[in-house]
Fold these 2 entries.
Entry 1:
Amino acid sequence: MPKEIVIVGAVAVGPKVACRLKRLEPEANITLIDRDDLISYGGCGIPYYVGGDINDLEDLYSTSSHAVRDQAFFENCKGINVLTRVEAVEIDRNGKKLKVKHLESGEEESLGYDKLVLATGASPVIPPFPGGDLPRVFTLADLHDAEKIKKLMSQGRVGTAAVIGAGAIGLEISEALADLWGIETTLIEMEDQVLPTILGKCIARIAAKEMEKKGVNLLLSERVLQITGREGSDGCVVKTSNNVLSVDIVVLAAGVRPNTELAQNAGLSVGISGGIVVDRRMRTSDPNIYAGGDCVELQNLVSGENTLMALGSLANRQGRVIATNISGGQSHFRGTVGTFCLKIFDLGISKAGLTYRQAKLTGFDPVYAAVAQADHAHFYPSSEMTYISLIADRRSRKILGVEAAGKNGDAVKARVDAVAVLLKYGVDVDDVCGLETGYAPPFASAMDVINNAGNALDNILAGSNRPIDAADFLFDFAHKEIKVLDIRGEKEAVPFLQKYGSRWLNIPQDQLRSRVAEVPQNEPLFLLCDTGPRSYEAQVYLSSQGITDTFNIQGGFAMIIATDPEFI
Amino acid sequence: MPKEIVIVGAVAVGPKVACRLKRLEPEANITLIDRDDLISYGGCGIPYYVGGDINDLEDLYSTSSHAVRDQAFFENCKGINVLTRVEAVEIDRNGKKLKVKHLESGEEESLGYDKLVLATGASPVIPPFPGGDLPRVFTLADLHDAEKIKKLMSQGRVGTAAVIGAGAIGLEISEALADLWGIETTLIEMEDQVLPTILGKCIARIAAKEMEKKGVNLLLSERVLQITGREGSDGCVVKTSNNVLSVDIVVLAAGVRPNTELAQNAGLSVGISGGIVVDRRMRTSDPNIYAGGDCVELQNLVSGENTLMALGSLANRQGRVIATNISGGQSHFRGTVGTFCLKIFDLGISKAGLTYRQAKLTGFDPVYAAVAQADHAHFYPSSEMTYISLIADRRSRKILGVEAAGKNGDAVKARVDAVAVLLKYGVDVDDVCGLETGYAPPFASAMDVINNAGNALDNILAGSNRPIDAADFLFDFAHKEIKVLDIRGEKEAVPFLQKYGSRWLNIPQDQLRSRVAEVPQNEPLFLLCDTGPRSYEAQVYLSSQGITDTFNIQGGFAMIIATDPEFI
């Protein structure tokens, strides 16, 4: 058993390695070092601190029993040495020594190690346009950034803000600014959707609508060209490809990049993704040096490709694996399927696996089903609509990804997690159709929304369900002369009949068999019901009557309204 | 493709087969028959109708778009023939005919079939004691029973009730009676815990406490000897092994038994569990006869044994499989891992796999970890304590079961479902430690409660965590002179120091290393913290100091209070 363990980085993975290793090997001498004076904090909580859900910064580095996780805590409660405001400068792999620098005094010293752990994390990407270094331009790298922004806001000095990048942090921080603080917030994204690396277009549109509904000004497909200081007052002018915005602060949320300089300078392998290469035991190319957390690259277990995945949950699991292995055990971290969730305003969003675009780029032939269904039994009083998009490879029927949104975020996460944990086993569409999750009316339907996502995809693959995405329908309906056959009740159809005249036909489901002669025979038709199953049934019936040029609007009216609340 | 399809039974599996088959084969002539006049209802919703969460009985047999699922609905919307108040009398397998009897007229007729589907369901078990047939003794077999009970209650004629059997239906109906209607309800169970076939003792005790907290009088380990009519007024006298209760109504909730008479008389195989034997394609021993739902036996994919599992969710999934196979497709239903959930009062309960007792009976060497942790990040404002018990086989480390409870039922179900879907793949403890579920502070912890259940079990199997169940601690502490070492803060410990004097030691975690000399060396000690991780850490540390006769109270004080709210 190695006696001297040095760990570089004291957030998430570093403390996890240290604490578990000390439990496994009480005799080990473990030293945690960090450049910062605040350590072992919940970085994912930063947006909630900025937004005010969490009042006290200390809550982010306290334990569940309210002990502050500072140097004294680690020494007294855990028996672990902590050096803060200390930077790792250079690894001497032959001598097994780490040169460090005390940032306050400038002094350097050398720490010998038997095993070294690199938990150096990641840093915000500073985009290439000019102005990223202005004083009113912030990133959210650590608690100090969060404090600075919150201080400005609490002084009443922020009325307008621009957030650059509509990834998870960008969305969370936009909510934080706009919601409690009432700051006029503009979110700018160069891709044509929010969460472009996380969601496909169907669920991304629901997320975007939630942002807009709650007052965030969303600019998609806009590239920031430059940020300049505002004349006459603090603040910035953000010039994009289409707009010029004058704002009090700018938050850069353009993603993060792994901190690998220390590793690279020591000659350790770094992958093409930019992360430190580790094996399944989380060892770098030097068997005496482990690495974990945001600084390493991981295998995506769906695509097989190496990727970066900066998530505190993965970091913690990796930390446990590293500690077990250092203490002489055998523990493996195989990779990630990209399971993810977030809350934006009242919407829970969850995903795992590949998006449609990623699947296509990886070489799959992806196809997806989109469904809308209540999370609980429809006859039970409390239920929320849940939207799921399930993606499979056409030929192998292998599940490639799942995405979901809905107001009951715990229930949304439940559906996605149940598929997520199976992804690495290579399950197929039939496995999702038969997924055995718990059923009781207060918590699920007998045929649950996740099973029905599988069923819909099965029907699409079988060719009996010929779908159109709700957003594609909205586009086509606005631009082409295609008619809608609405099989909902007369009451639901009336406003549409009035608005769209002869382009909107209504034959309620229970009359379709007797009135089939009224259905136009030789022109394309969009079929619409509440959530999709009845329009699918109508499609099948019409096909049996020789009417085959029909498109079943996936997720029905529920999905249309979630995608465009103004479509009356 | 077979043209004539007859389906016996029009609840859950029957309608599912009929509707999907009609979509797959629009030309098929499909006839659904049922003894009842009410069909295609959500039987699992009955307790919520009785309790008042659902006001209108019709809601239980309406679609999500408010169409009533009656004979006309199936004929007009689905193109399916329905015969109600018609009983299946006899199957002529050679002639491929089903003799049926019209219950109103007494007339019999013969229905030819190419494929026959048996969806005959299950009937309530009438326990062997005398009095089960008295007029004020009810079962909950169908909507008519529910209506009768609700009518009596709404007439103000029910002030007291006894429910016999603390299975899921027994608990749900006890809540229905006690909660909205304020009926003094006594729940009687002959086993020593509630939900004896569903939960192990740890989570069962939490469920029992919830029942008692909400005013249900719970009699465990009591056998009902007889029920007699009450003299002078409607009502019953229930005599048990320990009590005599005078009540206005009795509800029998002693489980259900599959309806297999029709199948047995036709010479179809029936298994030792009492259910109709089917293969993976849901075919009986006659390839022209399929069966599904509560009347069939299924393989338990964890134990390998055949079992009964009367659940609407399984019935619906089986219905889809049957329809696919009848139409010439290939679809398999492999069995069940017993995933289950229910809500009782404010508590969500969820489970999958085997209980500790079942695992032992099956021949495994089970060991379990019990953990308590918030469902969301502890620093996030909204979170609820979640209690999980995870069971594995000691030698193979294979996961055998998982059980959970907590106030956020959707979150409880999420954790159990994520393990449930993996059970049939034979996953082990390490897979649960590394389970990749979604993380964001509003929905989970970075090291989530389900991962920590795996971690705790891993530590128990490694021998470093030597646990005691909270309930066993309560028993031992009451009956033996063992001391508690409480490593929580002084403030938390004070009331216990006052109450238990020298039997309660308090050394806060951050002082344990400096005050270890105060810890008694040669006597057993119960180690206590808030939820378990710190007492585990203390155990490890004390072991390193040669103090090894310690028991870590699983789930800490949170589990103790959930098990016995009166333990101050």
Entry 2:
Amino acid sequence: MSRPATAAVIVIGNEILSGRTKDANLSYIAAKLGEAGIRVMEARVVPDVEAAIVEAVNTCRGRYGYVFTTGGIGPTHDDITARCIAAAFGVPFGRNEEAERRLRGYYDPDQVNEARLSMADMPLGVELIDNPVSIAPGFRLENVYVLPGVPKILQAMVDGLVGSLEGGTPIASRALTVYAPEGEMAAMLAGVQARFPTLDLGSYPFFRQGRFGTTLVCRGADTLAVAQAHAALVEEATRMGVESAVFDAATARDDALPPGPIRP
Amino acid sequence: MSRPATAAVIVIGNEILSGRTKDANLSYIAAKLGEAGIRVMEARVVPDVEAAIVEAVNTCRGRYGYVFTTGGIGPTHDDITARCIAAAFGVPFGRNEEAERRLRGYYDPDQVNEARLSMADMPLGVELIDNPVSIAPGFRLENVYVLPGVPKILQAMVDGLVGSLEGGTPIASRALTVYAPEGEMAAMLAGVQARFPTLDLGSYPFFRQGRFGTTLVCRGADTLAVAQAHAALVEEATRMGVESAVFDAATARDDALPPGPIRP
């Protein structure tokens, strides 16, 4: 079995750094890549500034197997990602004929304008990434995949891409939710971690449906070890008399905190 | 008027990079700092790995006025942020007496254990950051502010901190929502951007309440220029016959996309 492949995600856009917009793309990309055995090792959020984009792309493409950028490939003047990718690779930037053909085929003739056609301006030598939602393609240059920021369009494009990526061993993950604070589970969890040093055991506190609890997560490429570690957590929690549940704490929302003390 | 101060946010945690958990802290910190005239220039998401945390902290603390880290300061074995901050600064790491005093005063004696007391292990020479929710304090070392990952606790601590930071000129922001695709607004928007070169004009497409549209945002330290640019956008949109609205597209959620074509 091969080792897990690695990736970085670069989120491009002033609106994320100003707090105006919450990024929704990192978690989607990371989960999809994880299923394919590709592990996101780092993510960066950078502004719509050429030097910042070029530095992030060049650092990450040298370090990781794959780089995915999101944002900045629309039709307006603040969409500078494609130009920055050309600058990062030191290749010419200009109209991609196939991308222009797709755009002209999609818009009515009186809807075609320079702004929309500018979505076909790309670095030389790219491979287009199909956009089944709004046609304007993304592109790949070497190990850098350039995707849009609008979550519904990005998701469709990632779904189409992921089968073509060379993955490694998929990362297995199992979780146990217990109704006990982190501070009471810590010693037990550290003990199980010591028995399974190749796995990542994580602890995530929550308050939901009027109760405090902790989600204990085992993750790793070794499926058998993940199952064994999970079984050990269940056994230890049972021995401690802690109530556990299969409630999916990762996707549910936190409730408002109660007025009483919170003791992690 | 001083220039806006700068900051970076470092989000620490495997659960964010695996896609299991969506980060909710960057947008909160960025918005609060923006109100205080501090501009977040970059954010990084790093795993629970010492070398990655140390590199991100040391790069960012040299580049920006403030660095805020989130996550990894709880009681479990995967909470390694405090130790990594000590390593980044090259200072000793050990029990902070005041932090231990606060923890012992908060927990009942039979609830005190080594895991919980480990939340008082910090780099030498820190200033504590009050935690009004669950007591275990964060800390500041030079320009690095170390905060927890649980959003409700982080938010309370940021609210308490922000008044003590040295801000710059607050960033003013005004938005106009139009019911027209980005591709039809691009030329007009670029024209207004050219008239106000000190501002950031951004364009954010959406589909909501059954309609497509674009939110045009003017941001900058010059409040008068922001108001003038916003007025110019309203005037141009009116002249184009585009329907506009004060609907807050930034905080509303996208609806599911309709089956028909989407033409940005």
